[in-house]
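Summary for the steering committee. One of the milestones for this cycle was to obtain a three-dimensional model of the protein with zinc ion bound, which we needed before selecting residues for the alanine scan. The sequence and ligand used are listed below.
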Amino acid sequence: MTPILIQNARVLGGDPQDILIDDGVIVALGAGLRPEGEHSSVDATGLIALPGLVDLHTHLREPGREDAETVETGTKAAARGGFTAVHAMANTDPVADTAGVVEQVWRLGREAGHADVRPVGAVTIGLKGERLAELGAMAESAAGVRVFSDDGLCVHDAQLMRRALEYVKAFDGVIAQHAQEPRLTEGAQMNEGELSGRLGLRGWPCVAEEAIVARDVLLAAHVGSRVHICHLSTKGSVEIVRLAKERGLPVTAEVTPHHLLLTDELVAGYDPRYKVNPPLRTAEDVAALREALADGTIDIVATDHAPHPVEAKDCEWDAAAFGMLGLETALSVVQHTMVDTGLLDWAGVADRLSFAPARIGRCDTGDVPHGRPVAAGEPANLTLVDPSTTTTIDPSTSASLSRNTPYEGMKLPGTVVATFLRGRPTHSITAGTTGGHA
Ligand SMILES: NC(=O)N[C@@H](CC(=O)O)C(=O)O
Ligand SMILES: [Zn+2]
Ligand SMILES: [Zn+2]
């Protein structure tokens, strides 16, 4: 590959600089670079350069639901969203609960080549919540699993959760908990509140999440092992995590783009596009989540990209599947809710969407590290963003196999202009291909 000179990019939102990439590595960074020899140039005037984004929570659906998404299509959507690495959730069919399945997913990611796929291992066999899966074998496999989760379901048995935390401590793993007390959410369809009563939909109380968050930070502290809370959605959960961090407990947390932007009022039209787990909450919760992401109480944004085929969403509310697309719109939603509101600068975005998720997933070191500083000697995993654009979201242009975006028709700021994975463009907008993305 000939060297690439990216000119005038605002690295992490700072002053314009040139970035010279050769052989997959950033070899020089500075103003007015004039490399000798053959190279190609990219004019990045007005663009922000970020470290390649890292998603700690993606559903790629392969194996088993290749009608909803495949590793190929999901990672293509990831590249278009500016991601160079994604953690693929274990709720596939078969479940990713053995070294064999996680290695298969990891290998599919390598073959597709759009983004590095870091498989998440299931905590319990078949996600049944009964017996621990072979966590050690998945950690030692070629996939090098460090994140374990029964996501979609909660590890609700306290003793199993304790054992899982003890087990992963040996290899510095982390349990990513889908915090949902199942007995408190039987048949639940939306946030519990005045609106759920009015709409006649079974409510999903905040305490169902908060009870598990509180229990698990205490368990993690007791064991001295790391717990990560998936898709935090309530003000009360924020308060618990804040208190836990003040006490120095080993907890990290994520918020999804949709919980930063959307509220339960959208459910009033019974449109299943807004059906998601955990449910959309109130404006007060949204404000608390934004504030917590800004002050670092919530460590990261994770997409929870959850593709579903048309028939699972184009139906009555009660029958519809939970979940929303997220990879291609994440950065735009974060710009809209956090940057354009003055809550976070671009360096903060780099932290919440790249540095911190890579650290939590322990993929900031090793053979193919992510979430590294934009600096000479580092792998050229880069995302170029044009923050000055506005796009009307059009699901038909998505790289995902599914169409269940909640943002259809919305105007959102920012466009990912190019993504580089170890110096190779995995996404780039050339003249004529700009426009809608979902
Ligand atoms: N978020 C969702 O609503 N759905 C996810 C499962 C999950 O993340 O809990 C899915 O797998 O579809
Ligand atoms: Zn979940
Ligand atoms: Zn999920």
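Key point for the committee: The first strand starts at residue 4 and ends at 11.
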